[in-house]
Amino acid sequence: MEERLDLIRIEALSALEPVDDEKSLENWQVKYLGRSSQLMEIFKALGTLSKEEKPIVGRTANQVKVALEAASGEKENLINQRRIDQVLEGEKIDVTLPGRRTISGSIHPTTQTLREIYRVFGDMGFQIYRSREVETDEFNFQLLNFPPHHPARDMQDTFFITSKQDRGDDPLLLRTHTSPGQIHAMLEHTKKYPEDPPPIRIILPGMCYRYEQITSRSEIQFNQVEGLAVGKGITFGDLKGTLSNFARRMFGQEAKTRFRASHFPFTEPSAEMDVGCFLCGGDGCSVCKGAGWLEILGCGMVHPTVLENGGFDPEVYSGFAFGMGPERITMMRHHIEDIRYFWANDLRFLDQF
Amino acid sequence: MKVPISWLKEYVEITLPIEELAYKLTLAGLEVEEIRYVGLPQPGEKQQATKISGFSWNPEEIVIGEVREVMPHPDADRLVLCRLDDGKQEHTVLTGAPNLFPYLEKGELDPPLKVAYAREGATIIDAYNESKDMALTTLKRKKIRGVDSYSMACSERELGISEEHEGIILLDQDAPTGQALAEYMGDAVLDIAITPNIARAASILGVAREVAAITGGKLILPSLEPVMEGNPIKGRVSIEIKDPELNPRFVLGLIENVEKKSSPYWVQRRLKLAGIRPIDCVVDATNYTMLEIGEPLHAFDYDVLLERAGGKPPRIITRRAKSGETLTTLDDVERKLDDFTVLVTDQSGPLSLAGVMGGADSEVGEKTKNVLLEGASWNYVNIRRTVSAQGLPSEAAYRFERGVHPAIASQGVQRCLEWMRKWTGGVVAQGLVDEYPLPPFETRVKLTPGDIERWLGISLSAVEIGELLKKLDFEVTIKKDELVVGTPPHRLDIGEGMVGKADLMEEIARVYGYDRIPETNLADELPLQAGNRALELEDKIRDKLAGIGLQEIVTYRITSPEAELRVFPPDQSSPELDYLELANPISSDKTVMRRSMLASLLEIVEKNRRNRERIALFEIGSEFFPNGENKHPVEEKLKLAIALTGVRTHLSWQCADRELMDFYDLKGLIEELLADLHLGNVSYTPDTATSFHPGKCARIEKDGKYLGIMGEIHPKVKGNYKLAEAPLTAAILDMETLLNEVDDLFEVESIPAQPPVLEDLALVVDDDVPAQTVQLLIVQTGGKTLAEVKLFDVYRGKQLGEGKKSLAYSLVYQHPEKTLTDKEVASIRGSIVKRLEKELGAQLRSW
Lengths: 353, 847
What we know:
- The complex is a heterodimer of chains A (353) and B (847).
- Helix content of chain A is 40%, strand content 19%.
- Chain A is an alpha+beta fold and 353 residues long.
- Chain A folds into two domains: 2-89; 109-350, BirA Bifunctional Protein, domain 2 (2-Layer Sandwich).
- Chain B is elongated and about 130 Å long.
- The termini of chain B are far apart.
């Protein structure tokens, strides 16, 4: 009996070998594991066996059945995998065809640069303060230490607003810089804290206007970002450190800075900060015009008169201020040749950001 | 300020290479914008951050030659031949220079003429190349009209000195024949940008002082003692100053028997390099002295003044102009004078516009023999007002309007008299007439090392600080730990008290070196971190809108009423709008501040129409309104504007939605945005607004508060723009209201444990019933259990009857705690249907 079972197993397994499709597997299953297969006949005949033979044959028969079923399962699996492979062969697509894109727009390049500037100074504790664009001469100039007829006014050609009543030496104008916000912010602050005011650290962004011919290098409307820090013991060294940190965040960890003496009526000492050209590494290129340095911002210690106009005692408080043009920075970073692109809003330009 | 280095070196020792000097000056606030080489050798490849231009003279090729004889050309009337010695041998040089013709056929010249001689093979500037600035050419041997030519005597243009090309350079007699020209007069010109605070450096001497302070080079002051051998000036002219505030000092000197001829060549060359045209030795002396020590001077014809005074000693009076007074200035313009204009006059009337320009009548001319020389000091504010009122900038006014110390007035006159004596052969009258009613306040600033540490962040001893200040000629006395600092008598820029301290600290930092001040981080207390909610909301809106397919734009806020009128239908009478007007517009299309963001946006849509088939834009910006009643006369309103037109999606190889966008695309975007801001209870009510289609316009409100308006642009308005057929929709939202209504805190519901019951409901209502009304009633009646209501079909058709529409809703019923039974759902549905039937006459649609 046992030899027979062994023969069945050998025969069945060798018959399974050439099977390679579902149909012949089904036939094999009927032949070797089906109701009327030899193996099943043996199971059916178990009852006729002696008490001693019965368990031995039964166990062996079962082992053969398990073995055949396993082999069948394995074969079935194999056939299935092969069928999938065959299907896949016919399912090849052209992966070079464009994908289905959702429609999205983009943020204006100036806004993007402004946000980077906010983030860098935000990390250093500077809060954003905004103020109006139509200003008075008093706030745009006089309180910032530009008296009427001061020669430094030549550096900021101004659009004036016609006024119905005579405003004398205090005409309305379009702010030429965001600096009037410094005065507003300081006055609000010192009004709120008349005694021993706590420090201020703010960033003042916004649109400014200058009376200029519109060319590829100059615009009548441009953004400016100013910064102001006022407190006890703020030094020119702090100004240098803070702005060099900014330069490294904005232009890369390798960015070098250089501070040159300059003049702004509302700061003293005043400086211009240049950054080693991040495009040519200082060797000279078309963007830095061969100089190896790029003018990035103007800065300085807040002039005592301005501190006083803001309600701070300059004998106790000190501070620094700086101002930069986000459009100019964007132009340098992306090799933009024409500042007029910014407000022309040609989608062929804006799409690229 | 153009500074020839040869001139600068007369007043300060310079050992540094020019580029290094330029770099140091730049760091110290005298920004060298350009170095123009005029003869001296230029540096090699590696230079230090200064723009370089110009032309260097090869010392072998370009030398001083002497012309010994000028002979006619055998075959050309307009050319001559020169017998020229270049220090090595004689050459025959061909030239057409008109300034040699006077010497033609005069035989051996004694003394010979000294010229700039370019030898055979020399490289010079091609003076005839008009297309390129400073194109170079090399001298080659060729025959001109039968005469061999291989070298030349150069003009200034050929050597890059000036544009002058009428004649050749005739050098001064002392020029050594055979010496390399570069060695004799090679130069380099520093072009320095003078900021208002260093107006004192608007002279060669002024720059020399800075160079001395910065580099440690020795300062060499010019002699101020003219040789005075004439009759004393005293009693021959007098001065009366009416208003010392406007004219703190007035000095006069006199030189007689001047001969008006050309200045020496070296003077002319320096003036040209500094940007001033030489005239004659009298005028040149005033300009030369102004450039040299910073005092603008004015020369009067003394005999004209004598004549005007009827032969008596003239009395010079400085005063404000009288009403209606006029003066013809030496540019031959008759000028109407303001009551603030200060004049130099005599008893017969105005002579000159003080500090700005001379008058034509008393000008020095061809016949002038005796020159009265004025050096004065004027109130800089007043000069500035005069310059802008008269539109008359001048070299003199440039300096006076920035402030010239009155002490320099007499120095200028003395120095100039000496130059005039040397160059004109005149005799200087002894003494000066000097009225000095208002010397400047002498500031004494007290300063301590603590101040320096507090402001600059460096610790220096009082002595060290004193040393730094002394480099700039400040008078310093140190008492214990306090410095008392007096301002040198050529500066007006140091204030008093704390301002004076800051002024000095800038000087200390400059001389110490900005680059030597160590960088530190802010160490003071971190201020209150308040954030900026408005900006954060704007940025959230920007991100959302860009994410759902809109492009952010930023437009001009200066526009014109005409441009803004385009958002009104042309058949409507133009509205009378009150604009903020620019008093000095730059062009006729930019005259006022905008009132309408819509106009800005539509212009940009129009501009892009040819390049894009889908245009979806937004801007967050201000509108400006005159505001008579409030405290500030201007109101700036921040708005969000959106415009949409063209196809819904871009062309694609797969099926794309190529339908045109309409009202509902815009509304969808707004709904998305407001949902993102968690702004509930928003309603859209039919509305009319001038620029919008009367049937496709809605007012957006939140709890009854006006948020904005949206709709399709009125076809008549659209007709004002060049635009494609596609509908154009737009919305304007008020940012301030949005900011007030958005609540950053919103509640989130728990996820229900029980499954929802889903059901559709189709209703037939009159066509004019707004969908929003139906939906509101369903939501209200459904109560809390009705979790979601979505309109999924709008249908109009014959079987519904005229004037009817069917609205089909998908409803989701959901109880937070239990599973709803069919009975409970049926009951809610029943009350919804009943209410709609009662209030709107709605019928359940039979399928």
